[in-house]
Amino acid sequence: MELLSTLLGSVLGLFSDFSRDWENNDFRVTIFKLLLSWIIVSGTAIHLAWRSYGSTVNGLYYRQGMGGQNVGAAEYPTRFPMWGGSCAESLKTQQ
Q1: Rounded-to-integer distance, Cα 76 and Cα 9, Å
Q2: pLDDT of res. 69
Q3: Rounded to the nearest 10 degrees, how much is the dihedral formed by the CA atoms of 77, 82, 85, 91?
Q4: What is the model's pLDDT at position 82?
Q5: For residues 7 and 23, what is the distance between their CA atoms, to the nearest angstrom?
Q6: Which portions of the chain are predicted below pLDDT 50?
Q7: What's this model's pTM, rounded to 2 decimal places?
Q8: How far apart (Å, rounded) are the C-alpha atoms in residues 31 and 35?
Q9: DSSP-derived 3-state class of residue 5
Q10: Integer CA distances (angstroms), 91 to 6, 60, 82, 83, in order
Q11: pLDDT per position as a tens digit, 65-79
């Protein structure tokens, strides 16, 4: 109980210092409003983008089906060309 009252007193002290500073310093208020609005706009944009493209992104990185991720997947996808080597070169495999 004593810990809770100490914590509550610290939080109230922080809010009172913040409100005093808010009233006395216009530059800090402007910076705070600017950064807060930037965070809100960025969070909203991320939310909207994830809502639109989230299933596509998940589909690219997580394979559905039995056996978990990457089971039965080709080591090199056929839709992408092999760069930086000739066809006669042997393919390197991870050990």
Answers
A1: 61
A2: 54
A3: 10
A4: 58
A5: 25
A6: none
A7: 0.45
A8: 6
A9: helix
A10: 65, 24, 10, 12
A11: 655 555 555 555 556
